[in-house]
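Protein data:
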Amino acid sequence: MVDISTRVVTLGGAVPYPGVRHAGGLYVHHLTQSLSERGLVEVIAPDHLANQKALEDADARVSAHLVGRWASSSARQRLLQRGVGIVERGWRRIDPASPPLGILASLYLDQRVRESVTSADIVDLQWFEFVRLAPHIRHLNPKAKIFGTFHDVLSQLYARRAEEGDAARWRRAEALAIAAERRSFRHLDRVLTLNEKDAELLRQRGAADVSVIDPPLAPVSLPERKTLGGSPEIVFVGYFARQVNVDAAAWFIDHVWPSVLASVPDARLKLVGLDPDAALAPLVSRAANAAALGFVDDLSPVYADASVVVVPLLSGSGVKFKTIQAMTYGIPTVSTTVGAEGVAHSDELEAVTDDPAAFAQAVTGILRDQPAADRRARDLAGKLAATYGEERFQETVKSIYAPHEQRTALVTDAVTVVIPYYGDPTDTLNLIEQLRPQEGLAEIIVADDASPVPFPDQVGVRVVRREANGGFGAAVNTGAALVSTDLMLVLNSDLDIGTTFIRDLLASAKALPTAVVSPQVLKASGAPEWTARSFPRTRHHVVEWLSPLARWRHLPALHRAVGHVTDLSPEGSDRVDWVIGAAMLVPTDDFRAVGGFDEQYYMTSEEVDLQRRLSARGVPSYVANAVEITHVGGGSSDSSHRRQWLVTARQRYANKWGGSVAFTASLTLASLVNFAANAPRQLAGRDLDARAVLRYELGLLRTARQQAKQATRVTTHTQGGQG
């Protein structure tokens, strides 16, 4: 399954154990059993009574740790924990899917939890509330693989509840959930769902790598059916701590059951499942021939006696285990539309309807010709056995959770250099002269981006000229189309490189898996160019936008606050989110497989977008710390244009990868903060116009929103290369 040296840490709401009493916990139980066969698995779950009891029956191979009661005996810690609980309960009224604050606090305050997370190879987040912890997991353990399993797409659930009533509350919850989904995608290495319907919905929301794991619900053999005779039994199985199941039972009892009894007076209704709040008692009391059985350890006898299984759900999301179980056990099943969502072969159920009369008619139709319905149900169970069987589940889990073999570095001693060119050829000619004697150079390609001063022909240099200006990414794509080596080296023209630069960079790359590799890029002054960076977050842009912080931007803390990686090793190579585009060694086939640079960007952010797509493909980015080059240019002929390019590119990135509303709103708020800081300075006699600055910044954002929606190109250029 997973390699014995692989540590998997699962964070979720329940400790899995045999006989767990709800569908999600049953799935996690099967998963942890599968993973524990060869790997080291630890489950971290909230510390409450149900999980404390579950520990008594949990598999000894799975280490379980209950957290959330992180306060020490000190009054201060107890008061802090109580405060966290009050805040969480209040916030959940606004955002029902908010992450558990007690678990979040434990990530930072509980040493055992922190050590487990930071030492894990895979951190597995079960249920959406825990998936929302992904940014914190990424912060604590940047190198771990983070998987997020969406048992339900809660934003869809909230949208459906908004249609049922209290629309304002549930629309707000839906919007918060969608925003949280998109934020989570940025930190997850893989998104997992339990059915293809949810997978497709999450892909539409922006998830890049989504896999489906069908739960192993099919029995080893079908139960022996009871002989005909006696009162027919209609069964509804559910976890009645969930309101959607209680509502379903109420709908069936009030709107369907009377019609069934009118046709089949001796029929009996059994409601099976845990009912911790005694919610079923008033329902059963008003229904003839109905009983609530509570939780049963084994459903096989229940299904053996069942004439029909009903799934009368009117709301909810995700795949319904109760529907799959009934189908795989070979029991005639009638479901509503919601109950059948995401279930394989659901079109072959006895009926799928939301109309009470049609639902009742389908149930009574089965009871009138039970043998024929049973034959159809058993045929359907045979079709489902492979999809929802244990063997299929084991194979899927192995393919997803087994440590992916790192692709070894491409063995090559030669690389093609691609240089995008525009403007004055002096810098590019200078770089070519530095490249000519380099060991490991296969070819130099200059991509002339429709420059008004065409690049001159040079011996040993292939020049390809674009008919229209397209910016950095478009120029590199044009040059990359001609590359025939396994690796290509994209270089800005305004660089000074050492005499062994290519040889040293290739040597560093050979020690790594297939990856994007950059040297350390220094400014002409010798100061760092901050080659390694974290994927952009709105908070990075806000810190950079706030002019009151300008005086402290030389401090390491401020560099980290804008996304610069400041703790690289002096030797060797460090894996990072992305590297700046001044010098990038890129595997050619992977570059082409992801479509190269997105040409909708212009002059900035295109390398971030590229590396994000490559990372999703399994091609990470590294900095070769011992290899250094100098970026001598980087000036701009028009700084106002350059800032607009930057803001527009960042808006386009936010539109593509999520967070567009937060980007605009946060920078608008930051502009108001700048105005509040500038106005007193202006009144004190400083040479600035606070209103003009505010209008300028808001204009940048307004133009960025407009341009980011279009495929237009700005036609002004930087002087020192297009990086």
Observations:
- Residues 634-638, 711-723 have pLDDT under 50 and may be disordered.
- The radius of gyration is 30 Å.
- The first strand starts at residue 7 and ends at 11.
- Residues 68 and 106 are 6 Å apart (CA to CA).
